[in-house]
């Protein structure tokens, strides 16, 4: 027998194994000052490309004012209890109604967090007779939702419609024997590659197969579509998305999430989602603040226009400079380089300390061995000058990477 705590040291995991060298620098860094394109890291201003504050709402003066006034009036506690028991308010219901109108779904349910919300929605929607078919590159919240599912699940190759059809045939066969239904799950925008889920093609498969579609559009809400109503709007297939999910953690620059669907589905979720029934309601400043954010998304399309101006300049500029940015068709901008993990570490350090650019770095096992992915999130707060400066800095570090400079360099410690 072993002591449980001792065992933890032996299985720190792919991220935890680097904790000692990385903590405070690559992991758990502290960005300080108002949320903006430039923030302080260790006391020095950095051009920051790693916040999902797509529309710049986090520090928009009207948002800050609405948040502060709601906190002053209601405090952070109100309302107490779960919505079902004692935590419901007119504001919660108003936000649900306004979100529903915006995404053009009959009804919406508010969720406390996106991650928990997706997990709990999957848990509630399917029973052991039902079959789930899901995209292989689904976000952790979907994967963890699947872990709660005691029925069968089939994975299809990322965005591969042939593979999806194959799994739909299997799922249909099985559901016919169990008397269950089929739930297909994918994302609107895949947050690592920036590719869009093939929502339209999936919806079209409904003419051949009987299934319901759940879409996690965390990165698409506010950024995609003519009005910002998301990837379903962008692909003109919102009607075929049976269960539309998004979080407030990205474009909405807040906390919370929501699901839009048909009235009977929302009624069912209201009475069966364990993450909502057994957890405290969203605090009032989050709800009133979300109403303000939604109003700005609706009434200030120039924020989305500015975001896309920066996105196009950044992505075109990187491509013209010879960078591989994969197959993104959304604001998420991966820059793919070749190198080892130590090289990735040195390159990021160089970018951060000498070029004063702060961006996320993704290495194996999230991307294949030998690939370094720098992930840039453009926002409406960035300027075309920021883009130009960044592309030049990226050219400089890529030259060093290609000539092997980061292989020799030694950096004692980042802490
Ligand atoms: C695709 C996707 N789904 C769900 C979530 C979780 O949302 P939240 O931060 O509100 O828990 C995220 C990340 O925030 C995400 O990227």
Q: What does it look like?
A:
The protein contains 17 helices and 14 strands. It is α/β, with parallel strands linked by helices and 415 residues long. The chain has two domains: 4-54 and 301-414, Aspartate Aminotransferase, domain 1 (Alpha-Beta Complex), CATH 3.90.1150; 61-299, 3-Layer(aba) Sandwich (Aspartate Aminotransferase, domain 2), CATH 3.40.640.10. The strands form three sheets. A seven-stranded mixed beta sheet has the order 4-10-9-8-7-5-6. The protein is globular. Pyridoxal-5'-phosphate (PLP) is lined by residues 113-115, 118, 139, 141, 187, 191, 216, 218, 247, 249, 257.
Brief synopsis:
Helix content is 43%, strand content 15%. The chain has 415 residues and is α/β, with parallel strands linked by helices. The strands form three sheets. A seven-stranded mixed β-sheet has the order 4-10-9-8-7-5-6.
Arithmetic mean pLDDT: 96
Classified in CATH, the superfamily of the largest domain is: Type I PLP-dependent aspartate aminotransferase-like (Major domain)
Q: Which residue ranges are poorly predicted, with pLDDT under 50 across at least 5 consecutive positions?
A: none
Q: How many beta strands in the DSSP annotation?
A: 14
Helix share, percent: 40-55%
Described by strand count, sense and barrel closure, the largest sheet is: 7 strands, mixed
- CATH overall fold name of the largest domain: Aspartate Aminotransferase, domain 2
CATH-derived architecture of the largest domain: 3-Layer(aba) Sandwich
Pairing-aware structural class of the strands and helices? Answer: alpha/beta
Overall structural domain count: 2
Q: Sum up the overall morphology in one term.
A: globular
Amount of beta strand: 15-25%
| Bound ligands, each once | pyridoxal-5'-phosphate
Q: Strand order, biggest sheet?
A: 4-10-9-8-7-5-6
By CATH reckoning, the class of the largest domain would read Alpha Beta
Query: How many helices?
Result: 17
Distance between the termini: 36 Å
């Amino acid at each position: 027998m072993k002591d449980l705590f001792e065992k933890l040291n032996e299985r720190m995991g792919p991220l935890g194994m680097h904790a000692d060298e990385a903590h405070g620098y690559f992991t758990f860094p502290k960005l300080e000052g108002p949320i903006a394109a430039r923030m302080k890291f260790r006391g020095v201003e950095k051009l920051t490309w790693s916040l999902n504050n797509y529309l710049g709402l986090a520090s928009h003066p009207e948002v800050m004012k609405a948040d502060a006034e709601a906190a002053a009036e209601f405090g952070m506690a109100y309302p107490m209890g779960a919505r079902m028991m004692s935590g419901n308010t007119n504001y919660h219901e108003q936000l649900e109604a306004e979100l529903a109108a915006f995404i053009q779904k009959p009804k919406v349910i508010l969720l406390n967090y996106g991650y928990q919300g997706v997990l709990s929605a999957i848990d509630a929607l399917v029973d052991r007779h039902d079959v789930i078919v899901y995209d292989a590159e689904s976000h952790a919240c979907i994967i963890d939702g699947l872990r709660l599912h005691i029925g069968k699940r089939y994975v299809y190759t990322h965005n591969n419609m042939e593979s999806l059809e194959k799994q739909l045939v299997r799922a249909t066969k099985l559901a016919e024997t169990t008397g269950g239904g089929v739930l297909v799950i994918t994302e609107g925008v895949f947050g690592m590659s920036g590719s869009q889920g093939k929502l339209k093609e999936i919806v079209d498969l409904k003419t051949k197969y009987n299934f319901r579609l759940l879409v996690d559009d965390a990165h698409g809400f506010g950024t995609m579509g003519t009005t910002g109503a998301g990837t379903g709007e962008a692909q003109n297939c919102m009607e075929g998305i049976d269960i539309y999910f998004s979080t407030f953690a990205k474009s909405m620059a807040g906390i919370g999430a929501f699901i839009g669907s048909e009235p009977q589905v929302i009624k069912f979720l209201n009475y069966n989602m364990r993450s909502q029934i057994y957890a405290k309601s969203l605090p009032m400043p989050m709800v009133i603040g979300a109403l303000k954010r939604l109003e700005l998304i609706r009434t200030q399309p120039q924020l989305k226009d500015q975001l896309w101006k920066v996105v196009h300049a950044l992505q075109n500029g990187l491509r013209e400079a010879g960078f591989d940015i994969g197959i993104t068709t959304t604001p998420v901008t991966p820059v793919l380089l070749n190198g080892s993990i130590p090289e990735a570490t040195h390159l990021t350090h160089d970018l951060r300390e000498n070029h004063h650019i702060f961006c996320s770095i993704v290495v194996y096992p999230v991307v294949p061995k030998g690939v370094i992915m720098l992930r840039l999130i453009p926002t409406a707060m960035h300027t075309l000058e920021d883009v130009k400066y960044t592309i030049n800095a990226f050219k400089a570090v890529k030259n060093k990477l290609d000539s092997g400079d980061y292989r020799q360099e030694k950096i004692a410690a980042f802490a």
